[in-house]
Write a structure and sequence with these properties.
There is one protein chain. Strand 13 (209-211) and strand 14 (214-217) form a beta hairpin. This protein has 4 domains: 2-14 and 418-459, no CATH class; 29-68 and 299-412, Jelly Rolls, CATH 2.60.120; 85-290, no CATH class; 470-516. Helix content is 23%, strand content 39%. Strands 1, 3, 4, 20, 24, 25 and 28 form a 7-stranded antiparallel sheet that branches. Helix 1 packs antiparallel against helix 3 (418-442). The protein has 5 helices and 28 strands. It is an alpha+beta fold and 516 residues long. It has helices at 2-25, 230-243, 418-442, 446-459, 472-515, and strands at 29-34, 49-53, 59-64, 67-72, 76-82, 95-97, 107-111, 114-122, 130-138, 146-161, 180-188, 197-203, 209-211, 214-217, 219-224, 226-227, 249-259, 269-290, 294-301, 310-323, 335-340, 343-344, 350-351, 360-361, 367-368, 380-387, 391-393, 397-412.
Length: 516
């Protein structure tokens, strides 16, 4: 019965303390505030500002048409870097160079119709002359930010020789490989450092054929050199741009190598009358390369929520966004990220591939950002475009945001009740512990508690110490002795009382006799 009373009193105490706490902490007043300025980007002096990181050439931002824009700066560019006859009005800047230690031809120069060579060999040391013409090419962009998607080259040459040029089908005394001219085009960095790529070439074999019943081939009319594959041409350009510190310069070289074989005993004459590289045309197209981990964000820093008598109840963020064209499938990981007080909002991810071409709410129910807010700290918001992919982009993409509202519900609760909360919590905890201990242990006498403890140990198979109990006769004997002591004490008290009463009566009688 006593245990039930204790339990009931304890439970009532907990309920009362809890009720007091709830009453204290119920908001006395609650209001909703819009925490951001210029949510529709209409102000001439907007508090919004943008930040960017990574490759800054990949992104840009502006405020336009009452919304904020993120720009991913994709584009396609085509460059015709060389066109026409060397040193004509369309192809300036060609210069003639000696090719290493090779001897020079008899005549080598740039004329109005192209790069010209004449050479006559008559068994002297100038058996293998060579000549180069070079032009440095510069373009107005950093090619490390672009990917070459297509390229083409066309180099036109012509030639005429005498019939004394020896070829495989001519009647000669000694023949190994014959006389020949090699026309070629190379691409390199400005220092002509290896690797140097040959991107077009033509080596004559039958030029000079005459007699012996074979058709005469003493000239070649305008003809293109044989180009390498487009992939190899792109590789050559990438290599040259890659070695340039500015990634925007390279050198193109036109060349001729002449070889005269000594095919006759005694004197052997070879006449290369006119060897001409008439024109060179080089064009390539590139797309903007978007670098991984580039980002750009629109940001605003608002005021803090301060005061000992207020509490943040709820906080939700709403905004609309759109994209002006479909996001490329080659960048599936890129996303829009929300930061509150420099903490990333992790409950939801907005993939750019899911964006539509018309404005819509990023989350119709709003982003619950309550747990990201703190009192006495300026509330900052950042909406960031984060490019997780590396990809090529042939045109600009614009992502826009608008109608950015941060609703914060603030409750006024009076004074700071934190000390009282601690006291109430401690009281509830203490009462709860007392009830549990009383209900489980202290409602039983000491002997019973020992027996219950012993039973638990036996059930769990633990070792127990000897527990000595008095025999029934000893218990009765002890009980009788205790009872006898009580009776004797009571008898002594009665006798003492009677004696004191007799003394009082005698004294009273003496007093009466004395008065008379």
């Amino acid at each position: 019965m006593a245990s039930k009373k204790v339990f009931g009193i304890g439970l009532l105490a907990i309920v009362l303390i809890g009720a007091i706490g709830i009453t204290i902490f119920l908001p006395k007043e609650e209001e909703q505030e819009y925490w951001l300025e210029d949510p529709t980007f209409d102000s001439a002096t907007s508090p919004w500002f943008y930040l960017e990181g990574g490759d800054l050439s990949d992104v840009d931002a502006d405020l336009n048409n009452s919304h904020a824009n993120f720009k991913i700066t994709g584009e396609t560019r085509t460059f015709t870097v060389i066109s026409g006859t060397p040193n004509s009005s369309t192809s300036q800047g060609w210069k003639q160079f000696r090719n290493g230690d090779y001897v020079l031809p008899d005549i080598a120069e740039i004329r109005s119709y192209g790069c010209f060579v004449y050479h006559h060999w008559n068994d002297l040391s100038d058996q293998a002359p060579s000549i180069h013409w070079k032009k440095n090419v510069s373009i107005p962009i950093d090619m490390s930010d672009y990917i070459i998607t297509s390229a083409s080259i066309e180099v036109i040459f012509n030639a005429s020789v005498d019939q004394d040029i020896d070829t495989p089908l001519d009647s000669v005394t000694n023949f190994a490989i014959g006389d020949s001219v090699t026309f070629y085009t190379k691409i390199s960095d400005l220092g002509y450092n290896p690797p140097v790529y040959t991107v077009a070439r033509n080596k004559t074999k039958y030029l000079g054929q005459y007699g012996n019943g074979n058709p005469s081939i003493l000239s070649i009319t305008d003809k293109p050199m044989e180009p390498v594959s487009e992939l190899d041409l792109i590789t050559a350009l990438n290599s040259a741009f890659g070695k340039d510190p500015d990634h925007s310069n390279f050198t193109i070289t036109l060349g001729m190598d002449i070889y005269s074989e000594d095919n006759e005993p005694g004197s052997d004459n070879d006449h290369f009358n006119s060897l001409i590289i008439k024109s060179c045309n080089l064009t390539f197209t590139c797309k903007k390369k978007i670098d991984q981990f580039t980002y750009i964000s629109w940001n605003q820093e608002g005021e803090s929520i301060s005061g000992t008598d207020i509490r943040i109840q709820r906080a939700k963020l709403f905004f609309k966004y759109k994209i002006d064209k479909s996001w490329p499938s080659t960048a599936p990981l890129s996303e829009m990220i929300i930061y509150i007080n420099n903490k990333r909002y992790t409950e939801e991810t907005i993939k750019l591939s899911d964006a539509n071409i018309y404005f819509e709410q990023a989350n119709p129910n709003g982003f619950d950002i309550y747990r990201y807010l703190e009192k006495d700290i300026n509330i900052s918001l950042s909406i960031q475009i984060y490019l997780k992919d590396s990809f090529e982009l042939n045109e600009e993409i614009i992502i826009s945001i608008d109608d950015i509202y941060l609703y914060i519900d603030i409750a006024k609760i009076g004074n700071d009740w934190l000390p009282l909360v601690i006291i109430l919590s401690s009281a509830i905890l203490g009462i709860s512990i007392f009830i549990i201990l009383y209900y489980k242990i202290f409602q039983f006498p000491a002997k019973v508690r020992k027996i219950r403890k012993l039973i638990k140990k036996i059930r769990k198979g633990k070792k127990t110490k000897p527990f000595i109990m008095d025999k029934r006769s000893n218990i009765i004997k002890k009980f009788n002795l205790e009872k006898k002591k009580i009776l004797e004490f009571e008898k002594s008290e009665i006798e003492t009382g009677l004696i004191q009463k007799s003394i009082i009566q005698i004294n009273n009688e003496k007093s009466k006799r004395g008065d008379k």
